[in-house]
Amino acid sequence: MFHVEPSPMEQLAACPICASNDLRTFLGVTDHSVSQEAFPLVDCQGCGFRFTNPRPGPQAIGRYYASDEYISHTNAARTLRDRVYQLARRHNIRNKHQLVRHHRANGRVLDIGCGTGEFLAYLGSRGYIVEGVEPDLGAREQAIANHSLNVVPSLVHVPAREQFHVVTLWHVLEHLHDLRGTLKKAHALIEDHGLLIIAVPDRASWDALHYGGAWAAYDVPRHLYHFRRKDVLRLLEEHGFESLETHRMWLDAFYVAMLSEQYRGASRPMAFIKGLLIGAWSNLVALFTRRCTSSSLFVARKTKI
User: Fold this and answer.
1) Which end of the chain has fewer surrounding CB within 10 Å, N or C?
2) pLDDT tens for each residue of 26-65
3) Coil, strand, or helix at residue 303?
4) How buried is residue 283: exposed, middle or buried, by Cβ count under 10 Å (0-12/13-18/19+)?
5) The pTM is what?
């Protein structure tokens, strides 16, 4: 297991959503992927938003991604878990393309947190003009070398004059220290009536409640925020976006459940079997009760403000 030295922490004094300073610790969660450190989750008593607090600051967080266990920054396919992830990713890329195409058949797309660039490469092969933002050097270099993509390390490197038809954040918003600043910048980069697409883990899902502190999608300290649908919808409205669609993401529950079972101590083969069963049950609960799935996806349109 990769060892991480303790890092300087930053502590938020107020809720990032409603600015209330009435914060209470909900649960301590262990970083099972990299450091084995424990991080508190706090709940805002004003609006119910949950976030990791304290947390590593922007200059310290990078070391918590520095592990082969963090698969989205690599293209590893060594283990059964890796192969399941790669298979699901290929399926998801096709679904993401279909979603984008449904709203916009062509145009300029910016993917914030593009990882190793597979989604952008797929869109590029379908005629879109694509650019990416990826802070992780290794992932960014793979995206550039493997797919000849234009990928920059942060949003500040995207010229303000550029206008995109679609901006996407696939499981990225929960990682970003400057939550509101990112949404403001995204709004400025999107043309009038252009689209913002966001996918995040949803802590109101059945599997989140079932696993509690072992729920893999808490993924502390890399996940700084732990959203419900109403949290995202509020942020979208406050930053000049009109929500068009909200979708459930059915595949995520299986992978999250498989990881959660490993965190609970199951062997990899047993975690795979139990992950399939628990993931299926979580999805059935969502299907028949209209509850959210392990992750939620939001499609919003920029409005003039």
Assistant:
1) C
2) 999 999 999 999 999 999 999 999 999 999 999 999 899 8
3) coil
4) buried
5) 0.90
